[in-house]
Amino acid sequence: MKDWDDIAQGILKGQKRAIARGLTWIEQGRNDGKQLAQKLFPHAGNAQVIGITGAPGVGKSTLVNALTLQLRSQGLRVGILAVDPSSPFSGGAILGDRIRMQDSVMDAGVYMRSFASRGHLGGLSRATFGALTVLDAAGFDKILVETVGAGQSEVEIMQLAHTTMVVLAPGMGDDIQAIKAGILEIGQVFVVNKADRDGVDHTVRSIRSMLALASEHPAWMPPILKTVAEDGRGMKELADALENHWQHLTDKGLLERFRWGQTEHLIEQAMADIGDRLVGRARSGQEWSHWVAEVGTGTREAEHVAEELWRQEWRED
Ligand SMILES: Nc1nc2c(ncn2[C@@H]2O[C@H](COP(=O)(O)OP(=O)(O)OP(=O)(O)O)[C@@H](O)[C@H]2O)c(=O)[nH]1
Ligand SMILES: [Mg+2]
């Protein structure tokens, strides 16, 4: 039996060591990691993936911890992925978060892991997708994905979530930051954390007015919740809101569409992988510098070079 086949069996039984091993393979972009994800994909599709995004310091990690305790009290199994696009592969950058999450980590129904991946943007979202497949196939009911850092990578990763939770805090002009990062459009649940501080209602009002501007009759009206992640206030309401969105997706058949889209995405990514490989190989070939020179002087089109690369690939195989 192949090594990854053993690991796949372990993951399907929910064994933590197998899960850890599989996630490492995927994180490292190894081939057996890809095969593993592919093998597990048909077994995934039961978990609700919940993305958690927001400006640095609003309390995302604290919230993940408090929400996890709430979900556990409801008997749900929780997988947690802290994705760090900025960290080059060590995964050590969010050690502080790991320590704070210890409450959850001690529990057998919880699996927590920091996740980083080498390479470009597409690489990270592909790896994250693989990691979600592993956790989903391992039988976790809810998978919480926290991103560290902001910008495009964050938006990409949030597209992998069924439900995206945008976290803000009073003051700090967070509302403006949210719009800048383009995360207001992707949020299905809004959380104003640090509700123990002044200015909570002001933040709630500004989110509400921005949401009203965004769409007149949305099929899903994002709720805005107030929480104090530090002492767990508002966690029951938050868990309910997340469950409501899950029900919404299930009832309307939107989940099928989501999965279809993800599967299409998987094929596109595989296509991009092949393209990357071809270009990588071509760069070390003799013709490359001629082609670059020709395209540079306008004697050849870039598209012709690309077609030539595909043709060579077919000839070789
Ligand atoms: N007053 C108050 N402080 C909070 C609350 N939730 C979190 N904090 C504090 O806010 C600080 C930041 O919390 P984190 O959970 O690390 O925030 P984060 O969004 O994960 O931060 P990054 O991962 O760096 O983006 C910590 O000192 C928390 O203790 C809250 O509800 N009220
Ligand atoms: Mg954090």
Describe it.
It is built from 14 helices and seven strands. The chain has 317 residues and is an alpha/beta fold. It folds into two domains: 44-252, Rossmann fold (3-Layer(aba) Sandwich); 264-316, no CATH class. A seven-stranded parallel β-sheet has the order 3-2-4-1-5-6-7, sandwiched between helices. Strand 6, helix 10 and strand 7 (224-226) form a beta-alpha-beta unit. Bound molecules: guanosine-5'-triphosphate and magnesium ion. Magnesium ion is lined by residues 60-61, 97, 146, 148.
Quick take:
The chain is of the alpha/beta class. Helices cover 55% and strands 12% of the residues.
Q: Please give the CATH architecture of the largest domain.
A: 3-Layer(aba) Sandwich
- Low-confidence stretches at least 5 residues in length (pLDDT < 50)? 87-99
Give the C-level CATH assignment of the largest domain: Alpha Beta
Tell me the structural class.
Answer: alpha/beta
| The CATH homologous superfamily of the largest domain | P-loop containing nucleotide triphosphate hydrolases
Strand portion: 5-15%
Sheet with the most strands?
A: 7 strands, parallel
Order of the strands making up the biggest sheet: 3-2-4-1-5-6-7
Distance between the termini: 27 Å
Set out the fold topology:
Blueprint: H1 3-12, H2 16-27, H3 31-40, E1 48-54, H4 60-73, E2 78-83, H5 95-100, H6 102-105, E3 110-115, H7 121-137, E4 142-147, H8 152-158, E5 163-168, H9 174-180, E6 189-192, H10 200-214, E7 224-226, H11 235-251, H12 254-283, H13 288-297, H14 302-316
Parallel strand pairs: 1-4, 1-5, 2-3, 2-4, 5-6, 6-7
The structure holds guanosine-5'-triphosphate and magnesium ion.
